[in-house]
């Protein structure tokens, strides 16, 4: 049976677990021919050779889904620019820090589209970063000529998105196998599309994306991070292990309830519906079939301690509304204890504390001035938390 997007091509940057297990899979299920772009030669070679792979749904009722109609190109190779020039849609799941790296390549592809008089194109950055698509647009612009800029302004949309699916490391029988939880959400900013909104299975379009971006970042990502940082301090290996510890589970829930109160008041969410959303997230964290190590979830603590990020952002929102934030600040304090020999940012964090002291480090990362109530409570929480 012909589906709405048959004969259309989606280029997806990032052939890792999130790319294959979430966005790329939804595009393929929606009828797109999906071309993955990545630096991993083994994965790209397997995608080109087989044109399909399996997704393992990690839930009480485990099942397997086959994704077909896919291929790959090396993002550093000669095929990527022509793939950009010929794409009907471009998405990314490369990590926020990699967007600036792929921007010059995207610019070259947009230049080719401009020269060829190509039609509209939408580029959706599906990253755990507020305004990721707009950020990517800003990274592309300096690499464009006048004609390229004119084409971008007129014909290229950069809809921001909020993505939510837990995709842990997974060891299957095949290099392309990927494991995911059953639940997912993908909200995209409707007014930012150019040339119409594509029909994509599982993609929800909204006129108020920021509400959903903050709901996800300040609930799912907040709870996930705090579970990881408290779990790490207490010698617990996975998020499920951390949530199996009554004290940790209670503190994670308290943090999500504090951010939830601020979100309900800020965005007008229904309080009962948001409470149910928190309960669903708790159940996801406790899923025994998802082996998500706290070292993975807690990585990049420098970024995650940013002023608008998952720990400080909701704490500031709560404080500004006159609401409690102590559980959120406990999570920030736990993040400052985070150690992981394989994570450069964890190493950078401990080096900053050793060099500048705790108070100056907190100010540098969170932009909270010394003497600020939130700053003071983070320092107090750090002193109270001790590694196992």
UniProtKB/TrEMBL annotation:
<dbReference type="InterPro" id="IPR013328">
    <property type="entry name" value="6PGD_dom2"/>
</dbReference>
<feature type="binding site">
    <location>
        <begin position="10"/>
        <end position="21"/>
    </location>
    <ligand>
        <name>NAD(+)</name>
    </ligand>
</feature>
<dbReference type="GO" id="GO:0019592">
    <property type="term" value="P:mannitol catabolic process"/>
</dbReference>
<feature type="domain" description="Mannitol dehydrogenase N-terminal">
    <location>
        <begin position="9"/>
        <end position="202"/>
    </location>
</feature>
<feature type="domain" description="Mannitol dehydrogenase C-terminal">
    <location>
        <begin position="208"/>
        <end position="385"/>
    </location>
</feature>
<dbReference type="InterPro" id="IPR000669">
    <property type="entry name" value="Mannitol_DH"/>
</dbReference>
<protein>
    <recommendedName>
        <fullName>Mannitol-1-phosphate 5-dehydrogenase</fullName>
        <ecNumber>1.1.1.17</ecNumber>
    </recommendedName>
</protein>
<dbReference type="GO" id="GO:0005829">
    <property type="term" value="C:cytosol"/>
</dbReference>
<dbReference type="Pfam" id="PF08125">
    <property type="entry name" value="Mannitol_dh_C"/>
</dbReference>
<dbReference type="InterPro" id="IPR013118">
    <property type="entry name" value="Mannitol_DH_C"/>
</dbReference>
<dbReference type="InterPro" id="IPR013131">
    <property type="entry name" value="Mannitol_DH_N"/>
</dbReference>
<dbReference type="InterPro" id="IPR008927">
    <property type="entry name" value="6-PGluconate_DH-like_C_sf"/>
</dbReference>
<comment type="similarity">
    <text>Belongs to the mannitol dehydrogenase family.</text>
</comment>
<dbReference type="InterPro" id="IPR023027">
    <property type="entry name" value="Mannitol_DH_CS"/>
</dbReference>
<dbReference type="GO" id="GO:0008926">
    <property type="term" value="F:mannitol-1-phosphate 5-dehydrogenase activity"/>
</dbReference>
<dbReference type="InterPro" id="IPR023028">
    <property type="entry name" value="Mannitol_1_phos_5_DH"/>
</dbReference>
<keyword id="KW-0560">Oxidoreductase</keyword>
<dbReference type="InterPro" id="IPR036291">
    <property type="entry name" value="NAD(P)-bd_dom_sf"/>
</dbReference>
<dbReference type="Pfam" id="PF01232">
    <property type="entry name" value="Mannitol_dh"/>
</dbReference>
<keyword id="KW-0520">NAD</keyword>
